[in-house]
Specification:
Helices cover 51% and strands 5% of the residues. It is mostly helical. The strands form two sheets. It has a three-stranded antiparallel sheet. Strands 1-2 form a two-stranded antiparallel sheet. Helix 3 packs parallel to helix 18, helix 4 (118-129) crosses helix 7 and helix 12 (288-299) crosses helix 17. Bound molecules: acetyl coenzyme *A. Acetyl coenzyme *A is lined by residues 285, 288, 312, 318-325, 373, 375, 378-380.
Length: 447
């Protein structure tokens, strides 16, 4: 036998024998050694607390602003591999769901963990469809908003207000109550969103039509004018349904974290959903597609693309709709959305900004600056173009994100509530302020 091979085998066996799923830490302040278990590729931050300089020491903490390397929960809902560009809900690839599922079926999957049987799906669809009406008093709040109020601001407020109508929503550890609030939230979000939109353009509210699909009814409440019965265009209805599937969940993003964190105080789910919706309102989260549209308008023509890319590379601008904190590959949702864009343009006519977007993508994907930084189109690169072509004003873009994300928020909220390891979310801080000092009377405070 080759002696080098024998040595390698022995070394591997030694390593296997000494291999333990733990981390050894030597504290160079004290010379003490600690062994900390590793489970699922993580150590528990609380295991660091035993590492102390002396008895009076509080113990070591980890410092992680923005949670960039901290898992805040164990989850079985959504899986993302950003390096490989993989997104799965409950194990099912997003590509298969986008092609074969519907939004309501996907919402059922996210919340219940399994795809429904035919009877379960019918029951689920029936209940959500029959919870789409909102209390007439909500129309009074909407009427109180200024004529140009942002629909997302109205949505945040009205979803919070729902908690005042449903006292039973406080009973969060009752599965029956949770189920009812789930029907109500998924059923009423499109109605609140559509009413907010109609208010912002000064049009009368359109009541839900229970004969239509989830997205068909949403289009009805948004766009119906004088016709007796609104007939949604099937291509647009399906395109919106697929966009809703793609936006339904994205594991521990800013708004899901808000839902879990606020929900951890055991507040009702409407108040927690209002907090999650508010998180989504921010331009760093739900508002990037609007920025993409502005950028494409700013570029103005295909001929101007190279000059714009040069400015981006010079650090003058960011290429909006490119790059992602997690995806270091093509965002799998962006690929599907690009196909939908063409389907929508077939119905509504080609969006003139599309050619500019395609040229931006073509140049960026070949350019060394973007390639080395792993900057690929994200979910927002094409959605703005689609929404604009469908007739939505830019202020509605984050609203179109909030409606489908509601099912993901509910799944995350319920998982948090039922997880025995979860408690009220309460991070620690590194205090760098003053030590104790005495109060100074105002006349002694100088200039
Ligand atoms: N255009 C040009 N350069 C970029 C871009 C971009 N869009 N994104 C990142 N870079 C560059 C940075 O300048 C940096 O370069 P450097 O190493 O030479 O300094 C490098 O790539 C790494 O960038 P970071 O900012 O560290 O990446 P981070 O993960 O923090 O940012 C983010 C991710 C915020 C999404 C960023 O890519 C970005 O601003 N993109 C544009 C906005 C956007 O499309 N947001 C939507 C995200 S999807 C969603 O939220 C639903």
């Amino acid at each position: 036998m080759d002696p080098t091979k024998a040595a390698t085998t022995v070394a591997a066996e030694d390593a296997a024998q000494t291999r333990r799923d733990s981390l050894t830490i030597i504290d160079n302040r004290t010379g003490k050694r600690y062994e900390i278990p590793i489970q699922h590729g993580t150590i528990r931050a609380m295991d660091l607390r035993q590492i102390k300089v002396d008895e009076a020491d509080f113990g070591l903490m980890s410092y992680d602003p923005a949670f960039t390397n901290t898992a805040s929960c164990k989850s079985r809902i959504t899986y993302i591999d950003g390096e490989k560009g993989i997104l799965r809900y409950r194990g099912y690839p997003i590509e298969e769901l986008a092609e074969r599922s519907t939004y309501l079926e996907t919402a059922y999957l996210l919340i219940h963990g399994e795809l429904p049987t035919k009877a379960q799906l019918d029951d689920w669809t029936y209940h959500i469809t029959h919870h789409t009406f909102i209390h007439e008093s909500i129309k009074k709040f909407l009427d109180g908003f200024h004529y140009d109020a942002h629909p997302m601001g109205m949505l945040v407020s009205t979803v919070a207000a729902l908690s005042t109508f449903y006292e039973d929503a406080k009973d969060i550890f009752n599965p029956e109550s949770r189920r009812k609030q789930t029907y109500r939230l998924i059923g009423k979000m499109p109605t609140l969103a559509a009413f907010s939109y109609r208010h912002s353009i000064g049009m009368p509210y359109v009541y839900p039509d229970n004969d239509l699909s989830y997205t068909g009814n949403f289009l009805n409440m948004l766009f119906k004018t004088t016709e007796l019965k609104y007939k949604p265009n099937p291509a647009l209805e399906r395109a919106l349904d697929v966009l809703f599937i793609l936006h339904a969940d994205h594991e521990q993003n800013c708004s899901a974290n808000a839902m879990r964190s606020v929900g951890s105080s055991h507040v009702d789910p409407y108040s927690a959903t209002a907090a999650a919706t508010a998180a989504l309102y921010g331009p760093l989260h739900g508002g990037a597609n609007e920025a993409v549209l502005r950028m494409l308008e700013d570029i103005g023509s295909v001929n101007n693309v190279p000059a714009y890319i040069k400015r981006v590379k010079g650090g003058e601008k960011r290429l909006m709709g490119f790059g992602h904190r997690i995806y270091k590959n093509y965002d799998p949702r962006a690929r599907i959305i690009k196909e939908i864009a063409y389907q929508v343009f077939d119905v509504m006519g080609r969006n003139p900004l599309l050619d500019i977007a395609l040229e931006v993508e073509r140049i960026a994907l070949e350019d060394e600056y973007f390639v080395t930084r792993k900057l690929y189109p994200n979910v927002d690169f094409y959605t703005g173009l689609i929404y604009q072509s469908m007739g939505f004003p830019t202020t509605m873009f984050p609203v179109l994100f909030a409606i489908p994300r509601t099912s993901g928020w509910i799944a995350q909220w319920e998982e948090m509530l039922l997880d025995p390891e979860q408690k009220i979310a309460r991070p620690r801080q590194v205090y760098l302020g003053y030590d104790q000092r005495s109060y100074i009377p105002i006349e002694h405070r100088g200039g």
